């Protein structure tokens, strides 16, 4: 991420699950640090057991 810019909004759409668990706190901190005061952080992730046998059916629905 650029370090010399501030943003009104940061969108993290299906990103964090690609980041190693140990590095996620740093990812979220870096996003927060780049928000303008009063800015918005929007994050969406897949909240499902990716190893579950039911996962493929969940994607289809």
TrEMBL record:
Full protein name: Uncharacterized protein
């Amino acid at each position: 991420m650029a370090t010399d810019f501030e943003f009104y909004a940061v969108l993290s759409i299906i990103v964090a699950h690609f980041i190693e668990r140990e590095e996620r706190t740093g990812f979220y901190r870096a996003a927060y640090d780049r928000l303008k005061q009063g800015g918005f952080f929007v994050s969406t992730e897949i909240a499902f057991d990716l190893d579950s046998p039911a996962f493929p059916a969940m994607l289809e629905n």
